[in-house]
Amino acid sequence: MRASRFFISTLKEAPSDAEIVSHKLMMRAGMIKRLGSGIYTYMPLGLRVIRKVEAIVREEMNKAGAIELLMPLVQPAELWQETGRWDKMGPELMRVKDRHGRDFAIQPTSEEVITDVVRSEIKSYRQLPLNFYHIQTKFRDERRPRFGLMRGREFTMKDAYSFDRDVAGMQVSYQAMFDAYVKIFTRFGLQFRAVAADNGAIGGTGSHEFHVIASTGEDALVYCPTSDYAANMEAAEALPLLVGRAAAAEALAKTATPGKTKCESVAEFLGLPLARTVKSIALTVEKESEGEVTKENWLLLLRGDHELNEVKVSKVAGLSNFRFASEAEILEAYGSVPGYLGPVATKQPVNVVADRTVANMADFVCGANEEGFHYTGVNWGRDLQEPVVADLRNVVEGDASPDGKGVLAIERGIEVGHVFQLGTAYSAAMNATYLDEKGQPAPLQMGCYGIGVTRILGAAIEQNFDDKGIVWPDAIAPFELVLCPMGYDRSELVKLETDRLYAELQAAGVDVIVDDRGLRPGAMFADWELVGVPHRVVIGERGLKEGNLEYQGRRDAEATAVPAAEMVSFITGKLGTPGK
Amino acid sequence: MRASRFFISTLKEAPSDAEIVSHKLMMRAGMIKRLGSGIYTYMPLGLRVIRKVEAIVREEMNKAGAIELLMPLVQPAELWQETGRWDKMGPELMRVKDRHGRDFAIQPTSEEVITDVVRSEIKSYRQLPLNFYHIQTKFRDERRPRFGLMRGREFTMKDAYSFDRDVAGMQVSYQAMFDAYVKIFTRFGLQFRAVAADNGAIGGTGSHEFHVIASTGEDALVYCPTSDYAANMEAAEALPLLVGRAAAAEALAKTATPGKTKCESVAEFLGLPLARTVKSIALTVEKESEGEVTKENWLLLLRGDHELNEVKVSKVAGLSNFRFASEAEILEAYGSVPGYLGPVATKQPVNVVADRTVANMADFVCGANEEGFHYTGVNWGRDLQEPVVADLRNVVEGDASPDGKGVLAIERGIEVGHVFQLGTAYSAAMNATYLDEKGQPAPLQMGCYGIGVTRILGAAIEQNFDDKGIVWPDAIAPFELVLCPMGYDRSELVKLETDRLYAELQAAGVDVIVDDRGLRPGAMFADWELVGVPHRVVIGERGLKEGNLEYQGRRDAEATAVPAAEMVSFITGKLGTPGK
Asked: What's the whole-model pTM score?
């Protein structure tokens, strides 16, 4: 490619609505252009990156036996009503009526459509397993689109769907996709981590998220550096910090703690470690029976230095649709304003659930259900009933790994892929069956597998940038190499050498762009550093007189002189990227 | 590709709603699957064809200097309001509201968005010319979607947009696109014709349509076999059939023609040739002036054997928004029921426009404005005023070519591409300007260029099929070649030879599929003939014992024995398609 025939348009300043670095850099590098909230035009440079990401995804999906098709964007509401998602999805699902008033969804994913395709195509177990995928535009009407491509409304996703006879088969398909994802993210040249994830509302039997590691990531990833254990924060199991419970040593005492509504301030006021305090979180669960709604009071107990994990809470029996209690409800159940709640002597009956660590505490501090007072020296069995015990908290760095093979570490990540064992959630709702060996209909076992194609761009930048701009990994860079001739239009020597090198590099399969725009060196270098092309060769008269060109990698502090005659093999050596 | 790892699903019968052959064959071959009215899933076989079409389009667009980007599907209404298309487009434009109630269009094309991109990016004449394109899903809410991919609602289109400083520059860009289209359609291996087209409502200065020739095509294409002249029926100029007007030989006479309301029946009744009759077509034009609507009566005169061309009518001065007169309006203006109208002695004043041929007629027959009567022996200048003369009719086979180089022929075509000189229609409405050499703002001169990617599939089939199924041209076939082993799972000899040949063909770059599904020969052959793979090699034990394989082209009546050792070069020789 010649830059004079391409479209390059860089900016000194990012627009003011760009909050995070990848958004700023993509706007400044002219990779994307905002059309509306969460809706972007992919400019020529950005599209080149997308196409490289798509090509790698496609190759590895095909190698893993998945078959590409293309499902429509505009999908009839009837299919979405079959699974109930038409109602469940809320305003995130973009809905549209055609000229006859019929309802359609603009696809956010395509479970319904693929299940409809498969239920009409698959008759027999002999046709299984099958895995279909497409790479297609998606739309989600996010409440607050932001962060450029990280949380856009219109985006590109690869979504694959596997169909198997039984759970064992589904797990084989799932593992094949998991392995393909590892290859895909490795080929991208990104640092990533696969973590076990919660299956969420869909149910099913297993799921993993793939995250690009970045300190700016929205998600906390939990892993054990000395074992294979890895999970996202929602799914990471927290073991009890106290292995056994100490015997009670103190007497129960009501202590004035005026104005101290937080564990931190109570501990400080009482001169106790924070780890001696327990925080009480009041929940309400509404139950409907014979048309009448009744409320249950629940109290969760966490050690003062711990954080609640709401996903774990929702899995406690009886709490699947909990909500936090209102101030009025708290007053009614506990007889106290919030800040002084506790499990001892509540006004109304309360279901108490203690985190595993709290269940093993002794002589702890909690609210006295009276404004301005806490109990100290609280002990299970003596001062209150033994509680229901559950894992309720987020893990923290240094927690024991649930596999017993070390301690946990935490890093930040950006979710770019998700593999999911769906089981029969969709096939049962849509009556998608096959005939088994005995000729009996059985529901298809499904898996679904997504990669956020356009999101990869943002995530790759969040992981790879410096103060000059983006630093693309070779495999997904818009160009692998830029040739920067010093005086292409002035020096015959430079022009000849540039053209020769350009032709030879192209013949060697290098994705190279020549900057023949006639910019001054400073502006030219700044453009390509901002755009993030990973390799640069400068062709100058001075060097050429000694037979040399200058090579500089995007992360190199200095340029290296390389004999002109060796440059092509030097570059192809540099580009020997893994998996290519 | 191995058929056992691919998805092939053919049908014996086409669904009843498939009206035309391409729709029937694509459904039967399992290339597309209907999701809703005019909305299809592209199944794996169909998607392969689409990808090949896209790749050829992309390569030639890039070679012609166009730059690929990707514009959003969901586009803010504000841009569409700037050009007035939000109101003008009617229900064909699919409109959608987001969660905040803001209006969006699902793109049918992207003139507004690209003009918005360019007006913010282009400052100076130095940045011009530019040509951007994308290949993207489009949606048009057709009133009556039908014919499979020929008139779908969701479809894929390549749309390109050029931006130039002046008309001369735009014409250069236009010619480059025209030339690229010729290369693209040639590479597809389709018979096609580029015809001059009418510019329609947008105005502008020129346009051509590219049609795939097919006897089932919706459009009539006019061309001169002995010159370069070619136009669609709307745009093809009709010269006067009578070069000079004969002198009047008959007297004007009112003649009873009871019940004869058509030229054909009048001519038969009077024993005259149809070419002596003139048909009168009454129009009404409403004009608003100072809030008052007045009606004008217009009468168009065509020779009895000719057809009206409404596009030509709309270009006659005063007739840009004509409509056909109602029966009441006719009675009021002419004093007669329809079927007996004529230009002589009308009840109210009427503007008469005669087709070029009618203007040169003498002693002709026309209605007498009295039920059951016609005039015969009518002559211009004597019996009525000389008329306004215009080209009002469709050309017919044998008409003189407007370039004076032969006579016209007519064939049927399917429109698959359109190039269009837009001029400043969009740039003026959206204030998209650049600064010229003097620093003065000037509007950008635009062109737009479309190719209906998915429509190509339907058109290619309408041109290339037989009673067994589709016959794809090599360049866009889902696979170039199918290997049909006779007993792949039973004969070690056949398996070894099949695997060897498959590996060698792949290494030679042939897009080959092996049918390893274990079907019987008849079913296997029928599948691939229906799917339309253009080349087939049968590997059988009997032939192999003599060192031979059987080759058969999709249009060949018989198979040919080819020595196994020569098959790879035989096939690569066959695939030496033009432009590849």
From this structure: 0.92
